[in-house]
Design brief:
With 176 residues, the chain is of the alpha+beta class. The chain has one domain. The strands form three sheets. A four-stranded antiparallel β-sheet has the order 2-3-5-6, with no helix packed on it. It has a three-stranded antiparallel β-sheet with strand order 7-8-9, with no helix packed on it. The protein is globular and about 55 Å long.
């Protein structure tokens, strides 16, 4: 029965794939991309970016990113985690760049005097220039259960991360 299904799927898929490949001729304009190792421009010492969890482009062409302040680990950024040495200091949670990659400004984060999500995961700029950030706060001190397993005898994937609670959306002016 399984072989029959595979045969039917193959018989249907083959003509579709041939048709699709014929529709994309060699003369079609397919975009090509190149990495620009100096975009954005390097930050001033000792600043470093945390894990970027959201990117948006404002009406003026500037690019805003939101980073996770809790995304540093002893394995990679031991001086950030342990606050030893002179390197490195995480940037603020929101960093704005000009189209040429130059640093415009940064703002936001847990030290701003109001609740800030430790897991921001989206950023957007509306037509009025307001900055919207979606995020949540991870539940502290809660275990993750017994772990997850892959299919058909796969290895354990480790404990689940703690659930995110208090999900919310924040609205700011363009300068924080």
């Amino acid at each position: 029965m399984r072989d029959r299904r595979r045969g039917i799927v193959g018989a249907v898929a083959a003509p579709l794939l041939v048709g699709l490949s014929a529709a994309c001729g060699p003369g079609d304009n397919v975009p090509t991309f190149e990495v620009d190792a100096f975009w954005p421009m390097p930050l001033e010492y000792p600043n470093i970016l945390g894990p970027v969890s959201g990117v948006t482009v404002a009406d003026d062409g500037n690019i805003l990113i939101v980073t996770r302040q809790d995304g540093f680990s002893n394995a990679n950024e031991v001086n950030v985690v342990t606050e030893t040495g002179d390197c490195c200091r995480p940037t603020a949670a929101v960093v704005e760049y000009a189209p040429d990659g130059s640093h415009v400004r940064e703002w936001g984060g847990p030290d701003m005097g109001y609740p800030w999500p430790n897991r921001p995961h989206a950023i957007a700029v509306d037509g009025d220039g307001n900055v919207w950030i979606g995020g949540g706060v991870a539940a502290a001190g809660r275990g993750g259960g017994r772990g997850r397993f892959g299919g058909r005898g796969g290895a354990a994937a480790g404990p689940r991360p703690p659930p995110t609670v208090d999900s919310h959306i924040l609205k700011f002016s363009r300068t924080g």
